[in-house]
Design a protein that fits this description.
The structure is a homotetramer. The first copy, chain A, is α/β, with parallel strands linked by helices. Chain A is about 35% helix and about 30% strand. Chains in contact: A-B, A-C, A-D, B-C, B-D, C-D.
Chain lengths: ~280, ~280, ~280, ~280
C-alpha cells in the first residue's frame, strides 16, 4: 500500500462524474487499482472511492499538484472529496474499562495486519487490562475517574494530543463522554454498543432483549456523538439465540458479535469506506 | 401423528417435575416419543413439552381418563397444562390484502405437509388474491372496508365462526384490528411485521431502516394484541443489507424474510412449541 | 432499464484499463450509471461491468457505432467483451420433473420483477406441474422419456428453437443430459444441485450428507457441462442442520435453500454479473 | 456444577426408555436439571443426556451405588452409558505449530469460563507461541521434529501421560499423526480442519476452494483418526466469500471461522453432547 492513494468523492448525482474523476487521475499519471462507486437513487447522491498509484514511469507525481488539479474538477461538480496517502498510517487510541474481549480482538487483528493503522496508546479507567497492553508492547495509561469527568477528559485529551491520535476507539469503555468531548472528536470516535441499535439503547441491552423475548441479539459499531447510542451506524451483526439461553449466556454469546462488529467497523474506517450524509453512513466497498 | 398426544406443562421450577410427568404418562400406558424441557433460570420457570402415544398393547387408553389423572399431578405442583390430540387438526384462517408472497408461502408449505393444520378459508379486504385461493381450492371471502371497521370485523367474525377457526394468520393484512377483536382472539392471531421489532414499529419499517442507515433488516412473527406491533414475539430473522441497496430493494429482499418468518412462527404454533409467560414467549423445541 | 446498455470486459490486468473504457463510453455520449470492477490478483485478471445510457441530449447514439469504436480499444488491450442492450430481454426455458418448489419460486420472482428475462415455455418429462404452468399462463410441453434420450433431447431442442431460447434452467429436472446437448448449450444451462458442491455430487446428496454426519447442508447453482455436477459454480448457500433432523427433514429444509440459490444464480446471469475464466466463475456485482 | 452428574445413554429405540431412566434417577434421590433426548428415526437409535444432582435432603447419594443400580436398567435395555461427575474436570493438552489464532481463542474462552476443563500443558513443534503460553501461565513444551515422527510422538505421549491428559486438541498443529498414535487416542483427539469437509480434504483447502470457485468457505472440528481429515465431524461453520476476495483474504477470513468452530467443538465435548454411532456423531443438546 506504500505508494497507493485513496480518493473519496461525494456529490449530487450528475452525468459524467466517473469520466471526470478517472480522466483527472489519468492526466496526472495515476493508475487506478480499484474503484467502488454507488449512486443512492433514493436521494440522488453519488459516492465514489478510488485507489490509484502513480504510474511507475511517471516519476514526477506530486500529491500537492494532484490536489490542485482535482480541486478544479471538484468545484465544477460541487464535490466533497478527500485524498489519503496510504503510506501515512492513521493513529488510533483504544479506550477500555475492565472487559478484555474487544481489546484482545483489536490487538490480535492489528497484529495480523488486518487493521491499517498504528495503535500507540491504550487508556483505561481501571487497571485490569494493563497486562494485556504489556503483552502487546503498547503504553497503558490509567485515568483517575475520582477526579470527575471534566478532569478525566482533560487527561485523556492530553494523552491523545501527545500521541497525535486520529481516531478514538471505545472498546467497551464504560463511561459516558461529555458532549464537549464528542463534539471535539466528531466522527472520530467509534464505539461498540452491545445491542442491535436502534432497538436497545442505553444500559443492559441484553437484559432488555431477554425481557422482550427477542429471538436475535446483536451489536453495533457507530460514531459516538452527544446523544447516547444515536450516532451514525457503521456496522452491525447479529446471532440467533434460543429461549433456552439465559441472560448470562446472552452476555457470553454477545461478546463474539461485539468484538467482530467493532473490528469490522474499524476496518471500514481505516480503509476509507465510510461516507457520511444526512446523519447516516453509506459504506461503499 | 394420528395417535400422538402432545402435553405441554409450565410451572415454577421444583424438584421432581420430570419424574412426576413421565411417571404419570407411563402409568396410563403412554410411550414417550420426544421430550423437550427447559428451566429458565432467570425466572425459575419450568417449561416442558412431551409427545407420547398410547402403548400398542394398551387398548384401553382414554384421553378423558388421562386428563383426570394428570390433573392431580398438576394440582400438586401448581402446573399450567394442556393436552392436544394431534389427530384433531387445528383450523387456520388467512387474512390478506394485496401482496401475495406470504400467502403463497403459507399455502405451498401447507401443501408440502409442513404446517400441521387445515386452512378452510382465506379472507381479504381486496379482490386481488382471489385467483391464488382458487389455485389452491380454498374459499375466498372479500370483506367491504367501505362499511367501516366495526361492520368489517363483524363480517370477519362471522366467517371465522362459520369455519370454526382456531387461529387467525395475518399474512400482510394491511388493516389495524380493533382492541375488541384482538382481545377476543388473544394469543390466537399471528401477524407478520416487516421489521425487526422492537426497532421499527408502525408503518413503512423499511423506509425507517433506510433512513437510520442500519446494516441489517428483518421481520417478526408475533401475536397481535391491542398495542400495535407490541405483542409477544414468536420468531424473527434478518438479512444483511448493503448501503448500495435502495429502499425498493429493501422491500424485495425483505419479502423473502417475511414469508420465512411467518411460516416458521406458524410451524411453532401448530407444533405446540410456544409457551407464554409474563408477556413474552418461550419457544421450547 | 429500457435505454440502458451493459458492457462486460475481461482481460489481463494492465495500466489504464478503466480510463480507456470510461473514455470510450464518454466519447460516444454514454453516461455511466454503475461500474463494478475487480482485479483478481492471484491470476492478474481484470473483470469489469459497466452500465451506461446514452446521454439525453445525444440523439445520435448508435449501438453499431459504439461497438466498432470499442473494438479498437479492445484490440489494443486484448479484451474479451460483450455489449447488451437491456431492452432486449433474454428468453429462458424452464425444465422440470415432478417437484414444484423451484418452479414456483422462479415464476413468482419473475412475476415480482426480479428476473430480468422472459419465460416463454416450460418443459417437463412428467405431467404433474402442468397446472402450475397454467396458473402463470405459460405454455407447458411434456416430453416422452419412453422414446429414449436422443429422441427426447431432439424434442427439447425443437421447442427451444421454436421459442428462440437463450438460457435453459434446470429447475429440479431429474434427467441427465447427454454431452452432445450440454456442449451445444455450453454455459447456457443453469442447474440447481441439492448439495454443497463439490462435496456431495451425484444422486441423493441429502442422504450422503446425513450418513457423513455433516452439520451444514446446502445447494449449488452451476452451469451444466458434460461432467455431472462439475460445471462452474454460480451461487451457493447453506443452512445449519441439527443431528436431531431426519433425512426427510433435510429434504424439506433443503428445498428452501435450493429455490433461493437457483433464483440468485439466475439473477446474476440476467444481470450479466458472471465472468468465466479457467473453468470457474467470477461474480462481479 | 460441583454437585452435578451427567448421564449419557444410547441404545436401540424401545418403549419406556425415558421412564426407565428417570425412575432410576428419582429412586436414588437425583433431581433432574436438564434432559436432552432424541430418537434418530432413520436408524431407530435413542440418544439421551441427563443432568441431575443429588436431592439436598438425600445425604446418602453414592456414585458407586447409582452406577450399580443403573447397570441393571442398562442391561435390560442393552444401553451404552456413561456417568460423569462434573466436579472432576477433564484435562486437555493443546498442540500447536506457528499460528496463534486458534490457541488464543481456546485460552481466552477457557479464561472466560466457557470451556469446562483444565489446560495443564501446551505442546508445539515450533518455539513461536511460547510467549502466548507464558501470558496465560501454562507450561509450554517444544518437541524436536528433527528426531523423526516416532521419537516425537513418544515425547508427546510422555508429556500427555505426565499431565494425565484426557483430550488432545490440535489447534492448527501442522503435523500428520501416525495411525499408532490416533488409534491409541481414538475419539480423544479433536482437530480443526480449515475446510468444509468432506469437500476440501488435505493440504491448502483455501487454495482448493479458490480454484474451484466456490462461494462459501468453512471449517470443521472433527475427531482425528488414521484416515486424514476423515474422522467423525463434530461441528462446522461457514462464511460466504466474494469472488473479489483473494486467496490471502480467504486465509484471513477463514481464521475467524476456524477458531469459532474449534471452540464450539470443544464445548460440546466437555459438555458431553457428542454421541458416536456408526462412524458419525450425533450432537444432542
Amino acid at each position: 500500500m506504500d505508494k497507493t492513494f485513496t480518493l473519496t468523492v461525494s456529490c449530487k448525482d450528475q452525468c459524467g462524474l466517473i469520466a471526470a474523476i478517472t480522466n483527472c487521475i489519468a492526466s496526472k499519471g495515476g493508475n487506478i487499482l480499484n474503484m467502488a462507486q454507488h449512486t443512492a437513487i433514493d436521494i440522488s447522491m453519488f459516492f465514489c472511492k478510488v485507489d490509484f498509484e502513480p504510474n511507475q514511469s511517471s516519476t514526477k507525481f506530486s500529491e500537492e499538484d494532484f490536489k490542485n488539479t482535482f480541486e478544479e474538477t471538484a468545484k465544477k461538480y460541487n464535490m466533497t472529496w478527500k485524498l489519503f496517502h496510504r503510506a501515512r498510517k492513521q493513529k488510533m487510541a483504544v479506550l477500555v474499562s475492565k472487559t478484555s474481549h474487544c481489546l484482545y480482538e483489536v490487538l490480535l487483528k492489528h497484529q495480523g495486519g488486518q487493521l491499517d493503522c498504528e495503535i500507540p496508546v491504550i487508556i483505561s479507567n481501571h487497571p485490569n487490562l494493563c497486562g494485556v497492553a504489556t503483552e502487546f508492547h503498547i503504553p497503558f495509561f490509567q485515568v483517575d475517574t475520582g477526579k470527575g469527568k471534566v478532569a478525566v477528559e482533560a487527561d485523556i485529551q492530553r494523552i491523545l494530543d501527545q500521541y497525535e491520535i486520529d481516531l478514538v476507539c471505545l472498546a467497551r469503555y464504560m463511561q459516558i463522554l461529555s458532549s464537549d468531548f464528542t463534539n471535539k472528536w466528531e466522527n472520530k470516535i467509534i464505539n461498540i454498543h452491545h445491542g442491535f441499535l436502534p432497538a436497545f439503547k442505553g444500559a443492559k441491552p441484553y437484559h432488555q432483549a431477554w425481557n422482550k423475548g427477542v429471538k436475535i441479539i446483536g451489536a453495533t459499531a457507530h460514531f459516538a456523538n452527544e446523544e447516547l447510542d444515536q450516532g451514525p451506524i457503521i456496522y452491525q451483526d447479529v446471532i440467533k439465540i434460543s429461549d433456552t439461553n439465559s441472560i448470562e449466556e446472552f452476555v457470553q454469546m454477545g461478546q463474539d458479535v461485539e468484538r467482530e462488529v467493532l473490528v469490522e467497523g474499524l476496518k471500514r474506517y481505516f480503509n476509507h469506506n465510510i461516507f457520511l450524509y444526512n446523519g447516516r453512513t453509506f459504506i461503499i466497498e
